[in-house]
Amino acid sequence: MTGKSVISVKNLVKKFGNFTANDNLCFEVYEGEIFGFLGANGAGKTTALRILSGLLEPTSGEVTVAGYDVSKDSEKIKKNIGYMCQKFSLYDDLTVSENIVLYGGIYGLDNQSLRERKNKLLKQLRFEEYETRLIVDLPLGLKQKLAFSVAIIHNPRIVFLDEPTGGVDPVTRRQFWEMIWETASKGITIFVTTHYMDEAEYCDRVSIMSEGRIVAIDTPENLKKQYNAETIEQVFVRIARPLKN
Amino acid sequence: MRRYFGFVKKEFLHIFRDFRTLIIIFGIPAAQILIFGYAVRTDIKNAGIAVLDLSRDEITKRLTGKILSSGFFRKTEDLYSYKDIDRVFKKGSTKAVIVFEEGFGRNLMREGEAGVNIIADGSEPNSATLVTNYLQAIVNSFNLELGRTGTASAALIVPEVKMLYNPNLESQFMFVPGVITLILILICALMTSVTITREKEFGTMEVLLVSPLKPIQIILGKVTPYFFLSVFNVIMILLLSWLVFGLPVKGSYVLLLAVSMLYILMALSAGILISTVSTTMQQAIFISLIGMMLPTVLLSGFIFPIENMPKIYNYLSAVMPPRYFIVIIKNIMIKGTGFGFVWKETLILLAMTVLFISLSLRKFKIRLQ
Fold it and tell me: Rounded to 5 degrees, what are φ and ψ at B284?
């Protein structure tokens, strides 16, 4: 792998009482890559992502994001990451423009650059006509695209996407992934969880989680070769099944 | 600072875009003032009474006239026999029946004593007590009159009762401080706890926690709009009660507003505390209503005097912040006392505010659990 590591996870353990959500995770994510974090529901993806973004404290292990330790320097990490969560993260009762301004302001953009980015963003998304519409009136696909754009409005080093395409139609999903590629091409690292296996093919590297452990981690091509499969879906089924039985 | 102002602006937008929130903030205070002012009266105006005059002499006529001209009562009916009493009460509009015994005037002249019976509708204990008290007072003053004019031989000595501060026992004087206390709890504690849990429920809190916003900025951003709206509300309630009911503030406005702001801070921090222990809006609403509103109504001395409560409720009421606030604003508004008379209560309130703020800051989670 080329590039330097922006996320480094060593022996990460997260327990909720007796339940171990993340069992001894070890992996690296490199600058500018699209890292797919796959796994069945309840495999521990969201927990790991929350630890990386500073929302949860790890039980043990060493985790650094953008060069900072998550347990000690979470405030510094926050300035360097973007985050888009499973649930919809924009405010329904604010307009498109107000949401952009709000998040831009929260991330410390000054008025000048905020206005520039807002206009650029609206143009890119062909959103000009929606500028003064309330979010609640937009279709889901548009909302998700806007939420992603807002998550990277401050040019973070890493952006975390937690199942960003859940419930979105195939065409919009495709457009969404085009946005992700474009973002990655600017050098922003993408850390994305999903349970759509076809989306895994779009990633530079993927890891597959099952029952709190990472059971495979490599490029999609290598994984398919290794498991003698045609698609990541088949890989996933072959890995996930034996463990259950 | 820019972050904070952006956040405050967003909170104001939330409030002004949501019709229901606006109703709660501006509609309920106005409605409560009017409802308490007009509907929930603990004084009497035009209570219906019936008269069973078995004597029909000049004195009974004078006494009846005095009662009816007092402004507190109106006559619903003249009765002609004891049997009518039950019937007239069942009709509902009559609160009391006055019965003059046979030969009332003659007895009074000859023996200096005559019997008048006041029969009240005991199914409504509160109004029955009030009505009988008022009627007794009128009869007593009539006694005095008779004594003075020498119509009757013996002048009866009747103690004169005068209600200090609220000479007419007008209920507005009671309920305006109470309504302010209640409204502030409602807006501050309920609204802040709901708006914070709403962000939790909708998932936007996650995004805020991941952002560089500090928890203190989120908390302050949440409470700032409600602080200003609450101060505005206090002014609105005072203005309304002055314009509609003519209730003046006898003490210092500055002191009143200052103490109200302290109380608002207390309620806001209580609201944040509630939001830290609840995960859904329903929980927040439930805790605010049962934990804050109900005690404010029942235990603060707003409606039921604390002195008359059993000991255990007395202790319970001692930990209720509204109890002290009611004492303070009653003192300032109605008695017109200065800070010297309410400093103890203010200090208690201040201590509670500090306690709530430090607790909620400690409990407000930077990380999800």
Answer: -60, -45
Write the pLDDT tens digit of every residue in A106-132: 888 888 888 898 988 888 888 888 888
Q: Of chain B residues 186-205, which have a CB less than 8 A from chain A?
A: 202-204
Distance CA B365, CA A32 (A): 32
Please, are residues A87 and B203 in contact by the beta-carbon 8 Å criterion? yes
CATH for B51: 3.40.1710.10
B22 and B95 together in one domain: no
Q: Same domain, yes or no, for B14 and B87?
A: no
Q: Tokens standing for A50?
A: 């929350």
Whether residues B51 and B25 fall in one domain:
no
- Stated pTM of the model: 0.75
Inter-chain CB proximity A88 and B210 less than 8 Å: no
User: Cβ of B10 and A78 within 8 Å?
Assistant: no
Helix (H) or strand (E) holding A5: strand A5-16
Beta-bridge mates of residue A193: A37, A162
Q: Is A58 on the interface with B (CB under 8 A)?
A: no
* Predicted confidence band of residue A29 (pLDDT cuts 50, 70, 90): very high
- Residue B79 domain boundaries: 47-149
